[in-house]
Amino acid sequence: MADINAVARQFAEYYYGKFSANRADLVPLYREQSMLTFESSQHIGVGNIAEKYTGLPFGQVAARISTLDAQPTPTGICIFVTGELQLEDQEQPLRFCQCFNLVSESGSYWVLNDIFRLNYG
Amino acid sequence: MADINAVARQFAEYYYGKFSANRADLVPLYREQSMLTFESSQHIGVGNIAEKYTGLPFGQVAARISTLDAQPTPTGICIFVTGELQLEDQEQPLRFCQCFNLVSESGSYWVLNDIFRLNYG
């Protein structure tokens, strides 16, 4: 098995890079069985997840990862991230946390579970 | 399949109740394959996880759940929690987030993945 911490780092760099710059590029990470909980809204399937990500009501953001943890699962990797999002029109960054269950398939990974929450304070 | 949100609520009530009052009672939730990442320390197996939980350097805490999300996985449930811990000797509560992958077995659930992080601010 590939070093899961290296896979987690590579995934997080890709994911938050695309989340910051062009969220439509996140879509290939998802499949029909994929689930996204983004704040309190729930989305199942690549089409609904694409619609949610591309419809988020903010443009470019700067995402900073504070912590990145990973553990193996029977089908892939569990990844857990805390960090900050800096929106263009806001002074204070928003703290967030997010977990993913990635599934390993043919030497690559796709996202089965994706749960995102802001940490209001 | 049982309503996963009901299972998640029941699990979280049990887990944070025991986490607050008597962390030794968390041990039956774990198995030899279980993994715990608590802040930056990693623990595998029920004995090591028990040692970590019972050795945490604080007594009773009050845990408050802010958000609780759940999604199904091929083997059980993915649970994601944000909340606050109020320690006896601290004025400000500590914000935390935590994810679990629970495995369904014989009508019950055990914890395969457990990742806990404080959100410093």
Structure description:
The structure is a homodimer of 121-residue chains. Chain A is of the alpha+beta class. Chain A has one domain (4-107, 113-117): Nuclear Transport Factor 2, Chain: A, CATH 3.10.450. In chain A, 22% of the residues lie in helices and 50% in strands. Chain A contains 2 helices and 6 strands, in the order H-E-E-H-E-E-E-E. The first copy, chain A, has helices at residues 4-21, 46-54; strands at residues 30-38, 41-44, 61-72, 76-87, 94-105, 108-118. The first copy, chain A, has a 6-stranded mixed sheet with strand order 2-1-6-5-4-3, with helices on one face. In chain A, strand 1 (30-38) and strand 2 (41-44) form a beta hairpin. The longest helix of chain A has 18 residues, at 4-21. Chain A is globular, with a radius of gyration of 14 Å. The model of chain A has no long low-confidence stretch (mean pLDDT 94). The A-B interface holds A 35, 37, 40, 67, 69, 71-75, 78, 80, 82, 95, 97, 99, 101, 112-113, 115, 117, 119, 121 and B 35, 37, 40, 67, 69, 71-75, 78, 80, 82, 95, 97, 99, 101, 112-113, 115, 117, 119, 121.
